[in-house]
Amino acid sequence: MDQPDKLKYPVGTFSLDKDVTPEKRATWIAEIAGLPQSVRRAVQGLSKEQLDIPYREGGWNTRQIVHHLADSHMNTLIRLKLCLTEKEPTITAYSQDAWARTADVLTVEPHVSIGILEGVHARMAVLLGSLAPADFARTYRHPERGPMDVDHTLQLYAWHGRHHLAQVAALRTRQDW
Fold it and tell me: Using one digit for the tens of pLDDT, what is the confidence trace for 96-153?
């Protein structure tokens, strides 16, 4: 991975694990359950100015990352609920970059979205933890990615949290901080 990609993807790009076990699922669910507290710790003590510094050239700032996590993971909970209650529903895609430029994302304090993450992740962890093995094969249709099953979604969003936490951590190590 070249340097710009290393900055953009500090934990590497997403890679689907096809060898899924109940233990791995439990680990990913625990990561999802713990993300809100990890985000809270990651932004603790940051000034308004620090929240608004992009973690890399052309990247989002910490405020945008935190609000993006809430936006993205709210959508994920809804997608999972649709997937588990309907037969391969088609979900709605959205432009994460456009959402990251809306007034609420640019001005609202991150603790608001951390509160959203706490509620969404508590529900998501209970929902995912309640599933029977066959439920993880249920699918929804993403308009850009095609069919996605619950196992893929679980892995993707566990990675997604690690990915964005690492971006915030990268900002804290910058020399111009």
Answer: 999 999 999 999 999 999 999 999 999 999 999 999 999 999 999 999 999 999 999 9
Q: Among candidates 36, 33, 61, 57, which has minimal Cα distance to 47?
A: 61
Q: Say which CATH number the domain at 109 has.
A: 1.20.120.450
C-alpha distances out from residue 3 to 51, 55, 56, 60, 121, Å: 23, 14, 11, 17, 32
Rg over CA atoms, the chain? 16
Domain-located, residue 10: no
In a domain, 7, yes or no: no
Residue 98 lies in a domain: yes
pTM: 0.94
pLDDT at 68: 98
| Domain extent for 156 | 21-172
- 139 contacts 149 by C-beta, under 8 angstroms: yes
Q: How many structural domains is the chain composed of? A: 1
Per-residue tokens: 156:
């993707």
Give yes or no for residue 175 having a pLDDT over 60: no
- Rounded CA-CA distance 82/76 in Å is 10
Cβ atoms < 10 Å from Cβ of 115:
13
